[in-house]
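Hi P.,

Sorry for the delay on this. The queue was packed all week, but I finally got your sequence through. Input first:
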Amino acid sequence: MTKESAVKHTPGPWQINGTWPDDVVDATGSLVVSAYGDFESPVTKANAHLIAAAPALLEALELLVASDNGVITAAELKSNFAKAKAAISLAKGEPK
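Then the structure:
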């Protein structure tokens, strides 16, 4: 990661708080954001999952864009795509 693209947000990973399914917390359990709405609503839960996946999605996209320099092994590309797929699953709230 270059100096210009240094992380300016709360570092990931983020996850859904086990107590309040609309709250997104960081690795220390500190609140990052609450997905406003009825926390029993499937839409609110889906929003929280999408928000929680933001750091993983950003990392996966940065890896894929960086791999576009033409100098990447097949194993690195496969790893980058695996991270992207995992981030998408996280965003959708799918089990690991």
